[in-house]
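Practice problem 4.
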């Protein structure tokens, strides 16, 4: 038999033109030829026409994902965060200014008091060896001094005002110092901590422990900086008339790129806002979306967008496809929109459906320039919100079960069996199951809509609110500063297997020799962990 008649996979143009809507898990690439090491793979890319990034990672504008801490962390590792708009104009602008005012890779939360306050107990210090003293008792005022825990402990009268024993004019560094400069200052002066100050206001406090922690993380690489050597920070707005005022404040706050945040971007409202933004602020890149079809993309490209956000109903907390019966499988959407956007030089952001590094490789190879992540980043230290523990109801009134003073044992699925004592009349409410979590919610959830996100779904004027998202929780992931560098190393290895040494190389391969196939359900199961009684999955 002539071997040339045997199909060994299919080119993307054939696979994605058969009338099926594919997700990332549905498709698999075939390996290429390797003639370079994984570390030689270049992941630098464009977010939009004029915004360049070191890595193709974008934090989604969701209120449980991106505020100033996430924006700072993402810029530090070479990506960018888009600050959400589910808040007041003043609050969002303040978050942008907060991120823009820093050059260190984290946001600290120093304990601050005014000069007339007293330190009443050691708990006032928290875990820090100091308390800052400012004019107003907040970080956003002139710094007057610092109270050391060691000095406070020596006081016989601990109720005196801090002004009587604080150290005035403590060492500080300017906010334009980057992390290495701050660390160098701490070492040179043999300090345990140093305030970071801008215009006499405290921005952060960096401790020697912070320096040790950051240096224990993977090398962060090139940060995302603008022409002023400040972190690149994006911000989201809607498409209503009131968003024009929000846009003005965000530009004044220093936002480098504006994302028009809409679940369905092909609307007269968005096209008018694109034209307005480009006319009023031609120096600011505007990203439109969301879109999933060629026709949608063409309308926004003609309106003048500098980037396109692709995805509809593919996020883990999104129910748009289920509720509204519109959307598209994310792999198909990224391929189709990228095919037309590339001709106009408009970068594509693959938004949603990212659960692992393999999905990132697929999104980028199928034509995206960056991936926007929500659940992948939610649950990290830098995501908004406090950590909680997942609890499991395990009992009622003890006497109803007749246990009395008997010792009982249950098995915790995460930590194994443990014992507890039922006492007469004692109500046993909950027990920790060992899972540390943070809230994660869709912007189309009813909970998020109560804060204003219903405008994103063009439902702000509707009398009846219909949810297109849910509220859930995600497990603790640790710091973005750690798991994003590891994730990018995995992406580099994926590109190496494809034979692509850069994003542009991957895009060129897609249009030439790269082949794909669709995976059956059994093939998808086989491609993951299987056949084990138990296992622990660790990627790094």
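Answer key:
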């Amino acid at each position: 038999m002539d071997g040339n008649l045997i199909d060994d996979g299919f080119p993307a143009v054939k696979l994605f033109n058969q009338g099926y809507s594919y997700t990332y898990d549905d498709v698999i690439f075939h390996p290429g030829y390797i003639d370079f090491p994984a570390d030689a793979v270049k992941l630098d890319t464009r977010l939009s026409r004029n915004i360049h990034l070191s890595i193709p990672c974008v934090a989604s504008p969701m209120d449980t994902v991106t505020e100033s801490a996430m924006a700072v962390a993402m810029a530090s590792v070479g990506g960018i965060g888009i600050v959400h708009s589910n808040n007041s104009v003043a609050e969002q602008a303040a978050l942008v200014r907060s991120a823009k005012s820093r050059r260190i890779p984290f946001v600290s939360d120093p304990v601050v008091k005014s000069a007339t306050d007293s330190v009443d107990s050691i708990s006032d210090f928290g875990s820090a060896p100091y308390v800052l003293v400012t004019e107003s008792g907040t970080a956003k005022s002139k710094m007057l001094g610092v109270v050391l825990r060691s000095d406070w402990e020596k006081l016989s009268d601990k109720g005196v005002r801090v002004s009587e024993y604080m150290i005035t004019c403590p060492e500080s560094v300017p906010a334009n110092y980057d992390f290495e400069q701050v660390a160098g200052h701490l070492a040179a002066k043999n300090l345990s901590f140093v305030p970071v100050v801008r215009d006499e206001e405290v921005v952060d406090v960096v401790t020697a422990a912070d320096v040790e922690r950051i240096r224990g993380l993977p090398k962060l690489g090139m940060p995302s900086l603008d022409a002023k050597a400040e972190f690149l920070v994006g911000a989201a707005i809607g498409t209503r008339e009131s968003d024009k005022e929000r846009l003005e404040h965000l530009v004044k706050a220093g936002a480098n790129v504006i994302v028009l945040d809409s679940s369905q971007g092909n609307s007269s409202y968005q096209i008018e806002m694109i034209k307005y933004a480009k006319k009023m602020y031609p120096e600011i890149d505007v990203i439109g979306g969301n879109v999933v079809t060629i026709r949608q993309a063409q309308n926004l490209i003609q309106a003048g967008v500098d980037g396109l956000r692709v995805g509809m109903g593919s996020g883990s907390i999104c129910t748009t496809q289920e509720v509204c019966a519109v959307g598209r499988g994310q792999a198909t959407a990224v391929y189709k929109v990228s095919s037309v956007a590339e001709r106009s030089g408009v970068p594509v952001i693959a938004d949603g459906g990212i659960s692992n590094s393999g999905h990132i490789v697929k999104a980028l190879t199928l034509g995206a320039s960056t991936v926007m992540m929500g659940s992948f980043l939610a649950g990290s230290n830098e995501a908004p919100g406090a950590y909680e523990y997942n609890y499991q109801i395990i009992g009622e009134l003890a006497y109803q079960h007749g246990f009395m003073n008997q010792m009982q044992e249950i098995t915790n699925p995460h930590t194994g069996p443990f014992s507890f004592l039922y006492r007469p009349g004692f109500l046993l409410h909950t027990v920790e199951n060992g899972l540390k979590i943070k809230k994660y919610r869709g912007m189309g959830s009813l909970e998020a809509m109560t804060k204003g996100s219903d405008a994103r779904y063009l439902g702000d004027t509707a009398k009846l609110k219909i949810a297109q998202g849910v509220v859930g929780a995600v497990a603790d992931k640790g710091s973005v500063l750690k798991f994003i560098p590891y994730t990018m190393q995995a992406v580099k290895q994926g590109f190496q297997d494809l034979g692509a040494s850069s994003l542009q190389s991957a895009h060129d391969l897609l249009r030439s020799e790269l082949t794909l196939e669709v995976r059956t359900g059994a093939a998808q199961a086989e491609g993951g962990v299987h056949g084990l009684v138990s296992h622990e999955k660790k990627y790094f």
